[in-house]
Design brief:
The chain starts with 9 loop residues before the first strand and ends with a strand. A hairpin with a 5-residue loop joins strand 1 and strand 2. Helix content is 4%, strand content 45%. It is built from one helix and nine strands, in the order βββββββαββ. The protein has one domain. It is mainly beta. The radius of gyration is 14 Å and the shape is globular.
Amino acid sequence: MHIPGNAGVVSVQFEAANPLGSFIHLDFMAEGDLRVDDDNALRFGQFPRDKNFVLSVNLDITGSAATVEFSLLGDGASGNKIVNVKPAFLNVAKQFGAVKFWIGFQHNASFFVDDIVVTRKN
């Protein structure tokens, strides 16, 4: 990923393959750390602005639970967080089918994402 200094908050969202919506998302905050599902208690790591870095995501989705492991790699990027998907969103996670990158409506900027690889263990 490459997030310019003026990009504001960039998000990556994990969704079902149908209109059920998303089951978890990650925000790249203006302060240079990350936040899971808009929960400030789930902030972690550091990422650089104006440099390339890697976001690695591993999904472990079973019949009874789902966990997501987020890892940051590269020059100026660090952090790892394992998060349980909320039980209310387990059925959505079981139908995982899309990754969406976006910037909130309040920001007017661009960013770059390349080579998207998502692994799912079940």
